[in-house]
Specification:
mainly alpha; about 0% strand; rod-shaped
Length: about 140
């Protein structure tokens, strides 16, 4: 014979949800305190006890996700820090190469090699435009 649900059953379900939402341990005693009944009112009823046990499993699952996510977050932050250092190193290298390129082009220009430079970059217009955008050369010709 099936038991007819009563208000306490609904209260137990609500109490389990509340405990999970507030990250408080789900136990028969904790649920009983929330519902304001004796713990035996929970433990002697199969449906109520099943609700508590389901809540315990759900809480364990959620806590495992949070623990896993926390370690993932820490690894992600460490990786981000490594990437920031790599980007800073690469930006410094680009600045050095840009300055070096400008100096080289000025030297080539002083000895009259600008025509050869323009001839070479006539076949590589996209690269020449990128060099101009990087401020690595003047807009020769």
């Amino acid at each position: 014979m099936m038991k007819k649900p009563d208000k306490t059953d609904d209260d137990v379900a609500s109490a389990v949800t509340w405990l999970i939402d507030h990250d408080l341990d789900v136990t028969a005693r904790a649920v009983a305190r929330r519902v304001d009944v004796a713990p035996s009112t929970i433990t002697r009823d199969d449906d109520r006890m099943k609700a508590v046990e389901d809540g315990i499993r759900e809480q364990a699952r959620l806590r495992a996700i949070v623990a896993r996510d926390k370690s993932s977050r820490e690894e992600l932050l460490a990786r981000l820090e490594r990437e920031k250092k790599t980007v800073a190193k690469l930006e410094r290298q680009v600045a050095i190469l840009t300055a070096s390129h400008r100096a080289m082009l000025m030297a080539v220009g002083e000895i009259g090699g600008v025509a050869a430079w323009r001839k070479f970059f006539a076949k590589h217009e996209e690269i020449r435009q990128e060099l101009i955008a990087l401020n690595a050369c003047q807009t020769y010709g």
